[in-house]
Amino acid sequence: MALKNQIKNDGEGEHSTRIWRWNGFLIQYTVAGEDGPAVLLVHGFGAFRDHYRDNIHGLVGAGNRVWAITMIGFGKSEKPNIVYTELLWAELLRDFIVDVVGEPVHLVGNSIGGYFVAIVARIWSVLIKSVVLINSAGNVIPRYTFIPLSNDRQTSGASWLGSRILLFYLRLRIQEIVKKCYPTRVERADEWLINEMLRASYDPGVPVVLESIFSFNLSIPLNYLLEDVKEKVLIIQGMKDPISDSNAKVAMLKEHCDGVKIKELDAGHCPHDEVPERVNMIICDWILSVE
User: Are the CB atoms for 163 and 207 separated by under 8 Å?
Assistant: First the structure.
């Protein structure tokens, strides 16, 4: 079970930085707002809670309470020497909702964070009011019926070496990589964002986190994970995503995920940070319609 151990850090403006102890590890998060529906924001791989820097107060201003978490292994959360799996990260979200938020949430996830959100929706649907996936990882596979979720994972010498080569490459090319994810507003991939990502890459434990990339199991398709909650799902898709084929993905979602609402945006892989005003409006309207 997770143990709640929150430490408020004043000087953060209208929202506070807090620390939650999960399975003995320290997890950083932000909370803002006093009234309204609960919203939990989940970042993608290599990012952190403040990747939602211009979404937190936009959502709070519309009458919501907002939590933004930095997942274990990222940002300023602890990076222990453990085996990282998509189920582990989903279990962290489950425990955070139960122990910290204390009520069902509107669960928002970007990139691989969207995939973790979808797993929570499948296994612990009682914990969610709705799901918002922003350029989520994961595919659509018609007539899928098997769910091989497990925290068992094999590591190898190849993944050990590959993670360290990848880390060197990412540090060398991080500015170029991130800017490509912001095709319509390159200036949003600013010095602060690049420096925060680069800083985190030098923390002890990062190579172990990167090893998970070589053993990710994304074989469970989104249409299966969302099957039981599809009437409560909003997909926000930046159609200029350099990481995936957004047109093909949207077409498959429309064909095989009936009931799911889809919003297409002129943006890249991180619409919430590239066009935050637009995304905030979409999410706020969505929450109002669900509530």
Answer: yes
- Residue 138 has what DSSP assignment? -
- How many CB atoms neighbour CB 115 within 10 A? 24
This prediction has a pTM of 0.90
SS3 134: strand
Per-residue pLDDT of the chain (291 residues; tens, 9 = 90+): 444 444 444 333 367 899 999 999 999 999 999 999 999 999 999 999 999 999 999 999 999 999 999 999 999 999 999 989 999 999 999 999 999 999 999 999 999 999 999 999 999 999 999 999 999 999 998 888 766 666 665 565 677 677 777 777 778 889 999 999 999 999 999 999 999 999 988 888 888 888 877 777 788 899 999 999 989 999 999 999 999 999 999 999 999 998 999 999 999 999 999 999 999 999 999 999 999
> Cα–Cα distance between 208 and 187 in angstroms, integer?
31
Nearest to 86 by CA among 282, 195, 220: 220
- Residue 90's CB is within 10 A of a number of other CB atoms, namely 22
- Amino acid identity of residue 173, one-letter, is R
Count of C-beta atoms within a 10 Å radius of residue 68 = 25
3-state secondary structure at position 77 = coil
Query: Does residue 238 contact residue 232 with C-beta atoms inside 8 Å?
Result: no
Helix/strand/coil for 87: helix
- Residue pair 17/23 in contact (Cβ under 8 Å)? The answer is no
Cα separation, 33 vs 166, whole angstroms: 39
Helix 86-96 to helix 112-123 angle, to the nearest 10 degrees? 70
